[in-house]
Amino acid sequence: MLYRDAALADGSGPSLRKGVSVLVDRGRILWIRPTSDEGDLPSDVHVVDAGGSTIVPGMVDAHSHVTLPGGSHWIDRGFDSPEELLEVAEHNGDLLGRAGVRWARDVGSPAAVDPRDGRKRALALRVRERWREDRSRPRLRVAGTWIAHSGVLPAGLTIEADDGPGFLAAAAKQLDDGADLLKLYLDGPKKEEAPWSTEAVRAVVDLAHGRGAKVTAHSGLLPGARVGIDAGVDSLEHGFELDSDLAAQMARQGAFLVSTLAIFRSWASFAHTTTLPRFVGDEGKERTARRRERAIESVRVAHHAGVRIATGTDFGGGSLRANHLAWEVESLVEAGLKPWEALASATIRGGELLGESEAGRIGEGGPADFFLVHGDPLTDPTALWRVWRVAWLPEAPGRAEPTRR
Ligand SMILES: [Zn+2]
Question: What is the pLDDT of residues 72-130, one digit of tens each?
């Protein structure tokens, strides 16, 4: 398959390459050449006239919840039956792919009994195993079930751990179940205090690192963020209340921030489209606007400090849907990143966060994990909404590229 005369935007710099041809064979990129100098082509090549479109590396949604649907009732949906949630995951898999998202990092799913062996574990682990078999499905990394202090999130959704030994045991259980990373909920029942001590979090971080897993932490409030970074977590999710001292420390330690600013855009939209008082009422609207300003400031501070920023929708665990990552890229531009830097967050930085060298990148010999949009995402993030084609998804029946397993 030859994609001919496209532009190419890869997030490694601010300038668009034009007049580019890309030859793909069985899911790999054989070469990338100027369209004016393609050289000899295979006799059975299928040419796609990509004129007017831009090739972009498949994106990384670094904060997702694949078993949950999102929407204004997102929390309620966490209590739907496991069968329903597994169906939701398949729908989300479709949405992700069509939106140009190649990798999803699942940072929390409800636990349910696995009928295959009767063990209770995070549902997203089953989704990861299903999708591993199918090249057209998103590539998934899974954090297991959220680990939280009691009294913070609705009972039954998370694994609750209130003291050091219980916390460590909860972490070990997730790793035993096959989690790729751990997700700690570092907001506590008291706003001004982290839920666990720095020593307790450090013990969990050491356990996970010793077993080759990373640790990330939900951070809506500053006290928890401080404890997490002091304890050496690999990343903070949301980071809605960072300050410059903490951002400097994150940059020194190489900790990532996974931004999820579009949550507030979503809630603002619900003021118009729902009847829920928390979104429609004046008090709710003001609270959303205040938190949004603070969160944007937080990302701005982190970016200035040199913190590596990856990009997440929080779909499912928040109100966005699985095909909304472009909204977060737009939000990062609002927070002061240049459009090409924001694209890098949704691609290269996401791959770095996952520790996957091919994720979010495009190059000869690498996977043909790219999609084509209209417009230049290096200068205009809204181009990412205008998806025309996705190279890793099967074409219409009869034209399908052979699928490599
Ligand atoms: Zn989340």
Answer: 999 999 999 999 999 999 999 999 999 999 999 999 999 999 888 888 999 999 999 99
**Are 53 and 63 members of one domain?**
no
CATH of residue 147's domain is 3.20.20.140
Structure tokens at 390: 């996705």
Is the distance from CB of 41 to CB of 352 less than 8 angstroms? no
Q: Is the dihedral of CA 195, 267, 247, 233 positive or negative?
A: positive
In DSSP terms, which residues pair with 112 in a beta bridge? 121
Q: Please tell me the distance between residue 237's alpha carbon and the centre of ligand 1 in angstroms.
A: 8
Cα-to-centroid distance, 115 and ligand 1 (Å): 26
Question: pTM above 0.90?
Answer: yes
- Ligand 1 geometric centre to CA of 108 (Å): 7
Residue type, 247: A
* 400 falls within a domain: no
* Dist. CA 313 → ligand 1 center (Å): 8
If you measure from the C-alpha of residue 63 to the centroid of ligand 1, how many angstroms do you get, rounded to a whole number? 6
Question: Do residues 132 and 104 share a domain?
Answer: yes
Distance in angstroms (rounded) separating the CA atoms of residues 127 and 123: 7
